[in-house]
């Protein structure tokens, strides 16, 4: 991957809000673009931003020689009167000129719906990062097919909805989930060890808006007790993969992977503990990068501007 810092920028993973001399915070925006590589793209973008009084704070670019595409992410501030709707309307001409697929975002934090079953390590990590202000989004509610994690969610002040799932009620449960997504203006559904397989219809409805976490032993150690299987085979690496949800089980576009080295002294319980650490790390990074609009979906893969 080639990252070209072609503009004078201040590259900050989480830049502090720009402020005027009077201490008023300037509005912040992120523009992401994918299009065929051609002359004049960066010039057109910077010219557009200059015309709207914008100040670029971070710019990242990836030129993909295999597919002939260019991917860009530009974070910028604007004058107080600049609105997202104005940018969206006025950028259409530039986008059409270059055949761009693009998204413009303001500083509104994405709203998250977290789904869990009985394992609480990923939910606990997400809550901690959310309360510390490092998740990039706002957790709106927690949904589960069990009651086990209600105390954890409610201790953090989060609504907890119990939606039981059985073969007979699966369709109704999934429709209830979609209703909640609409009712609470949810931008991202996070499957934080939610131990249910989503239907193809639900995966399609949530395309690009749902992230799952699984242990990277798949597909080598399928089924129950994967860490026991791993122990029997003497694994040396424990990993986890965060990916977008698709109808192909655990084969969606990968956002992040975490790997931790282990050895023969790790019994199944120790392997499980290490695996939970890897799952929590990979999932929280993927969620944060998605919320910061650092992940560009491209077919079955992703471009991640970290």
The counted number of beta strands is 13
The percentage helix is 25-40%
The biggest sheet amounts to: 7 strands, mixed
Number of helices: 8
Q: Which strand order does the major sheet show? A: 7-6-5-8-9-10-11
Distance between the termini: 12 Å
Query: Strand portion, in percent?
Result: 25-35%
Radius of gyration: 21 Å
Q: What class, by secondary structure content?
A: alpha/beta
SSE succession: EHEEHEEHEHEHEHEHEEHEE
* Mean pLDDT level: 91
Shape: globular
Poorly predicted regions are: 1-16
GO molecular function: formyltetrahydrofolate deformylase activity
InterPro entries: ACT-like_dom_sf, Formyl-FH4-Hydrolase_C, Formyl_transf_N, Formyl_transf_N_sf, PurU, PurU_ACT
Protein name: Formyltetrahydrofolate deformylase
Family: Belongs to the PurU family.
């Amino acid at each position: 991957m080639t990252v070209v810092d072609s503009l004078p920028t201040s590259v900050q993973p989480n830049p502090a809000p720009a402020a005027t001399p009077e201490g008023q915070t300037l509005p912040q925006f992120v523009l992401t673009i994918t299009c065929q590589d051609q002359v004049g793209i960066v010039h057109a973008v910077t010219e557009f931003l200059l015309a709207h009084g914008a100040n670029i704070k971070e710019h990242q670019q990836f030129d993909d020689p295999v597919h002939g595409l260019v991917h860009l992410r530009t974070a910028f501030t604007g004058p107080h009167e600049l609105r997202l709707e104005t940018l969206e309307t006025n950028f259409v001409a530039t986008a059409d000129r270059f055949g761009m697929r693009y998204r413009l975002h303001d500083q509104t934090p994405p709203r998250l719906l977290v789904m869990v079953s009985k394992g609480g390590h990923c939910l606990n990590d997400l809550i901690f990062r959310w309360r510390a202000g490092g998740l990039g989004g706002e957790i709106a509610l927690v949904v589960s097919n069990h009651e086990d994690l209600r105390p954890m969610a409610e201790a953090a002040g989060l609504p907890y909805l119990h939606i039981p799932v059985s073969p007979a009620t699966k369709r109704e449960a999934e429709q209830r989930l979609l209703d909640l997504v609409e009712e609470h203006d949810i931008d991202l559904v996070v499957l934080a060890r939610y131990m249910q397989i989503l239907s193809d219809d639900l995966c399609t409805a949530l395309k690009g808006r749902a992230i799952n976490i699984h242990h990277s032993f798949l597909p080598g150690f399928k089924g129950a007790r994967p860490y026991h299987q791993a122990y029997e085979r003497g694994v040396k690496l424990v990993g986890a993969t965060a990916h977008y949800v698709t109808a192909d089980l655990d084969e969606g576009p990968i956002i992040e992977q975490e790997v931790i080295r282990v050895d023969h002294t790790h019994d199944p319980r120790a392997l499980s503990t290490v695996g939970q650490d890897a799952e929590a790390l990979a999932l929280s990074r993927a969620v944060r990068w998605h919320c910061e609009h650092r992940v560009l979906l491209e077919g079955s893969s992703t471009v991640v501007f970290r």
